[in-house]
Inverse folding.
């Protein structure tokens, strides 16, 4: 079963706009990771945020984590057509089993 | 591109057959995890191998089995294939099993007819 949900399920924006996607999860975690997947291929690791961190940045990516609400958000600023992909959050606790959400499909139009 | 490779890329099998999928981990990584991703879903954890020992298993039946070799490459074996086994199978490697990033291969697309 999935750990939680990403919201929205699908998002369509124009190049240059910001994209925000949210992730909710159900159990305690050690860390939360965001991955990108292009067209049913392998997942690309984007960013990891630990349970004692609240915000993290990497290039055009900003991730927040609110453990009291069991939620995280991923912000992609100044989006590009190449950002079109599915985005997944994944949580882990203890040994390194990743529990993935259901994903957000992002479409960035030129 | 990660240093994780998987073979084959695509595979078509018939119900009841057996299949072996292979994964080479990124250099220096001693942990391999396998995931099954059905169409339109997030990946589901199958099992993990750390230094050639199974280090955790998800909710998959015993006909899903695995192996890790001394060079840390890994195999996933599925016996008695069912139609619902049709999915993208992903392996991921990492250094250790304590909360580090996992690096995924491109996956093997298995179709069971």
């Amino acid at each position: 079963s999935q750990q939680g949900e990403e919201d929205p399920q699908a998002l369509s924006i124009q190049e240059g706009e910001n994209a925000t996607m949210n992730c909710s999860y159900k159990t305690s975690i050690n860390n939360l990771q965001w991955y990108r997947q292009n067209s049913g291929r392998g997942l690309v690791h984007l960013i990891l945020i630990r349970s004692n961190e609240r915000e993290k940045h990497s290039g055009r990516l900003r991730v927040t984590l609110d453990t009291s609400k069991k939620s995280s958000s991923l912000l992609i600023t100044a989006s590009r057509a190449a950002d079109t992909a599915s985005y997944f959050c994944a949580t882990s606790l203890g040994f390194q089993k990743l529990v993935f959400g259901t994903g957000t499909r992002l479409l960035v139009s030129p | 591109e990660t240093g994780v490779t998987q073979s084959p890329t695509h595979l078509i099998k018939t119900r009841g057959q057996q299949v072996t999928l292979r994964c080479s981990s990124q250099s220096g990584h001693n942990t391999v995890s396998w995931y099954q991703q059905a169409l339109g879903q997030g990946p589901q954890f199958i099992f993990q191998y750390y230094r050639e020992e199974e280090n955790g298993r998800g909710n998959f039946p015993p006909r899903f089995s695995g192996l890790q070799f001394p060079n840390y490459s890994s195999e996933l074996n599925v016996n008695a294939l069912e139609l619902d086994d049709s999915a993208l199978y992903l392996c991921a490697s990492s250094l250790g099993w304590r909360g580090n990033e996992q690096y995924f291969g491109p996956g093997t697309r298995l179709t069971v007819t």
The longest strand of chain B covers residues 87-94. Chain B has a mean pLDDT of 93.
